[in-house]
Every structure is written in structure tokens, then in C-alpha cells.
Amino acid sequence: MSADTDSDPDVMGLDHTTVTGWGRTAPTAAWVVRPRTYEEAAAAVRDCGARGGIPRGLGRAYGDAAQNAGGSVLDMTALDRVHAIDADGGTVLCDAGVSLHRLMEVLLPLGWFVPVTPGTRYVTVGGAIGADIHGKNHHVSGSFARHVLALELLTADGEIRTVVPGTPLFDATAGGMGLTGVILTATIRLQPVRTSLMSVDTERASDLDDLMARLAATDHRYRYSVAWIDLLARGAATGRAVLTRGDHAPLDALPARLRRDPLAFRTPRLPAAPAILPEGLLSRTTVGLFNELWYRKAPRTRTGRLQRISGFFHPLDGVPHWNRVYGRGGFVQYQFVVGHGREDALRRIVRRISERRCPSFLAVLKRFGEADPGWLSFPVPGWTLALDIPAGLPGLGAFLDELDEEVAAAGGRVYLAKDARLRPELLAAMYPRLDDFRELRARLDPRGVFVSDLARRLSL
User: 450 in helix, strand or coil?
Assistant: First the structure.
């Protein structure tokens, strides 16, 4: 977020601020309020005005889900207490504003890890539930909301409701992008670990078919699995990839020097990306060179390498403000999923991206497991591809519209937490429970208290 110049000092506790997603492509101005107590959160909901309000965490949703042009944005990061940890049973009760980074700091020394983490640990628990985030272990563990035992939700009528799995309100809130209310607390089931290191296997795949065959044949052996794809490679090398998989390292895998403090959580940081970078830095030429070097330096096969949790899960967190690398115009992260049996659609899309020469050096393919219960949750069983593309690429909007249509025709969907451009007419085809979500919202929030730029654009 960046401060707007026409802030109103007479509005107590409010800043008039330009708000963007992590991709920085669709900024809008809103009044941002930072409640410090549940009572202040309730007051903020009550007083958010005709343009409504939307809760926001640490701003890592790539699109416009946590923005509200002309209305209110509730910055929930001051509500960040860890209330209780059951170190025997493996659960934690915390505020929704607690970050996954903070949970790792607190839980790892006790032998517990968060059940699901995306590519950054700088997301809040409330954001993790609202976007129903997934990680490298979806094929084993599902998405984040599957591990939530209960949550407290501040709804539009001012009530605080205890919401549990298996209820319509829980299923609407998990993946509901903050539109059912403000999550205040959550109780989460944790993953036991013996060390804070990962045992990692790496191998190269020569093309997309080789990659998919390796994933399908052996993913069941690993808790975590992800592949980086070179989307600039063409011809016989289309879809060539580096496949990285692993699990939490057991104590006996550590050398003696690391066994003295096996649960230490270390997070190295590099200098922040400059606020201003030259346009065109990420051209086809520079990204092509990076991709070639990245693929060639990866081992053909390597097993059992020990790696810190931060390096395995969150390598980009070591570079603060890495999103600035894309320049002033920002970037689009495009992520879609197509089901098992729709591999031909995935092949066509990868081939089209490769032929289009989209300069993407952050492109990952994963396999999703069982679908999650959230009505707007993104994962369904199948293949998901995510890629970052500079927003200024000529013709990008029309090209992605064509990909959307191909994804929808294949029974797939795009990820709403990363979207700022999907055409609303495709939404119902992608999310079959959309009408249920809209009906529950209409009953729960008839005055439209909770609203966002995403909700207006897609008529959620």
C-alpha cells in the first residue's frame, strides 16, 4: 500500500490510501482502518459506510480481492495474538491477523509446523482461510481450511459467530475472499515435525510429458512436490522442468552439528529490491537466459539434500519487495487448474504460452488432490499451473482471455486470489457452487456491508 496525498486528518483512525494487490496492477483508493480489538473491528464494520468494507491481511493476494474503491479496508494485522497452543494435541488458537511467519517462529521450537503454506509465509491466518490457500502438499493434505477446526466470524449484523466445518457458513467462508465477514480467530490443527530442515530430492524432466509422468508415478512418495517449468522452451523441449520434492527431515538425517538445535528456525534475508527498476528488465532475452541457466544448473538427479524450511518453501521471502522487479506496471500471476483426464488442455495451454514467448521465470506446476469443501475454493483434483507475466506485455489481456475460455471449456478454473481481470460470464462455469455462495451472502449480508473490487467486478 502507498499513502494517498489527500488523507483526511479529521477521520480518526483512518488513512486514505492507494491499495493494490501484490501484482500492483489495479490500484484503487480506500479508507484503511486498523482495528486493535474485536470491539474496534465491530465498530469498523458498523461504520464502513455506503461503499462497504473488506478485511485485509498482509496484502499478498495478487489481484483485487482485498481492495475496495471508495470504501473501507479493514487492516487486520494488529489483531495478532497467539492465544493458546496445545503442544500435546497439536492445535493452536490465534487471531486472524497472525502471520504464518509468526506461527512458524512460535511453533517450530515445539515440534509443530503449519499444515499448509503457500510460496510466502507473509500471509495472515485470516487471509489463508479467506483464500483457502494451498501449497506443495495439496495432493496429501488439501488446502488450509481443511485443517481449521473452528473460527470466529464477525458478520454484517455485528454478531460474532462460531463457525465449524461441515456447515454452509464455513464452506462459504473458506475461499470466500472475506465476503462473508471478518475472521477474528481460528483454531488450527498442526503438522508434527522433528526438525526444521527438509530432505529434498531434485531431478530434471526433459519436457512436459516427461514431467507429468514423473509426477503421476511417484508423487505419492512425497508430502511436498512442485515443478519449475521453462515456459520459453519450445519444440521438443516444451515444458522442460526441474522437479523438487521432499519431506520434513528426521532427526537422524541431520549431521551432528545440527542435532544440537534441530528445530531452529532461520530465515536469511537479502537486500530489498529497489523501489524503481528499469522497464523492460524482464524481457524475453533476459528471462530466456535465466531459464536456461536455471535448468542447466539443476542436477539431473539428487536425493536427500538438506535444506532449510525457509529455502524450500519461501525462497522469494528472502528478497523483500521482490514484486518490484517487474517495474512500475506490475505483473499478472495467472493460475489455473484442469482436472485429471484433461491433460491435452494443459498441453495446449503450455504450448500456446511457449509459442507466445511470455517472459515468465516464475512458473510452477503441481498436482492437486481431493477437492476441498469451500464453495469458492480453487483446488480440484488435477493439474495446476501458475506463472508470473509482466503486465505491460503487448496483447496480454486478450491472450489471457483466450486461455480463460480454454480453461473453462476443459472444466477448469482460475484462482480468484490471484485474479484482477477475469470476465464475469465465465465465473459460473468455473465455480459450480457460485449461486449457493451468492444466495448465502444475500441472506447473511442483505445491505452489502462486505464488498471488494473483486466482488463488484465478478458480481459475487
Answer: strand
